[in-house]
């Protein structure tokens, strides 16, 4: 059997190696346009930051062997044609036309089965000057190596990053933490990570960006990039100009489907290649895998596009199985993502609030702040969590988290919950391991379900951290923290009445709380607010709410910290 794989990233290489493992007499050839292939794209930002010392680590096995053409030929039995571009496919005669980019000579490769794993391409914004020298896209390992060399030799002292998504956020850390570069982050939307996080979570990220010295330009378009004597000049929509040594445009990626479209394979609404659950295209002899493919959402089955290495590797294995007459299936996608950012982790699964509205859902949300182990462990971290669910049937639609706590297990658990189609009242059935150094007796998802139930049964409103400063004019803020906590983290009160009564004294001093207005209760993380709310409700207060997640869920640009 002759198998041609077009594309030398995760999906294509995984498929090629899987085929050779299952069928030793198969001839498998991978066509790769670049000379460097098979590297960890997700690790490039960490190479740029210096967390990974050498670029070869991104193309090595755990044992330190470089995964080059010789490695794949000798160890995996797969032939890699680097520097060859696949320019067309003949579906009738079953061959791929290639061009050797070094000699410009043509080559024809016959196939019995074909895998298209052409990945994604940078989505270039329509900005005049976007193709000028010095404007880069950080899409290949060569991009990362070139930029790091320039950092090491002092050629980059300032940079403008256009795009506030995951990669833009990672690059802010890479340039600031190791190299101390002046960083300007330019984002068209009014918040960072707008397609992933809701505003109350993104504000926490923005607060950390500001604290780390990043110059944020939110809700601001770049009208033009010009070459000037001392670098590149960005002209923003506000009229402001920024002069920098480099511009990095990371405004997203799109499926690379030129070849598939050219031979009439079906493309979906996202622009990705349509495949069935065996990863066959509209031509059953041609499979597709990786970032070039359109997938189905686990939330509602609608088509979506997820450029994630975890999915690409799984797709590669499944395509390889099925080419060897297996029957492996690739299911719907929850879209779980996680990223490290300075001292924070950021995770998202499923839909955010905007996506829910666009898809016609009537939703409710709950928020919480949690320790990732019992609080008395010195290394215990905090995580801010938001859960979105369908009011009609309780189906969990999305989960978002930001914090310093251990978050990977939360993100993975959320993905399985959404994959299984769980409702919020099912969460208390979740079983977890418990030991004080690792977790708490109740999992955060247990507590989120309890918060929703408590709010409904006790008649206590959950105040979103995003809406806390939009309270009714006559509302009173009741702060039930201890005096030293209030002094350490001072919450802005605006023009609202503000009453400080520690929870331990509230029953005795309850008459100090105005009764004929909305009482918004705050504490550090939310749990004491519940106790205070019940005390007020049982004493006759009818209009009571709590700041969900507590004062620590408010970003630092809306609180004043008096301690380090």
Give the tags.
564 residues; alpha/beta; FAD/NAD(P)-binding domain; 4 domains; 24% helix
Please provide a written account of the structure.
The chain has 564 residues and is α/β, with parallel strands linked by helices. The chain folds into four domains: 2-39 and 54-119 and 254-323, FAD/NAD(P)-binding domain, CATH 3.50.50.60; 135-251, 3-Layer(bba) Sandwich (FAD/NAD(P)-binding domain), CATH 3.50.50; 337-457, FAD/NAD(P)-binding domain; 462-561, Oxidized Rhodanese, domain 1, CATH 3.40.250. The chain has 13 helices and 33 strands. The strands form nine sheets. It has a five-stranded parallel sheet. α1 (10-22) packs parallel to α8. The chain starts with a strand and ends with a strand. The model is unreliable at 560-564 (pLDDT under 50).
Low-confidence stretches: 560-564
Side by side, the strands of the main sheet go 3-2-1-7-19
Mean pLDDT: 94
* Percent range for β-strand residues: 25-35%
Total domains, how many? 4
- Tell me the helix content: 10-25%
Q: Got a strand count?
A: 33
Q: Regarding quaternary structure, how should these chains be classified?
A: single chain
Report the structural category: alpha/beta
For the biggest sheet, the summary is: 5 strands, parallel
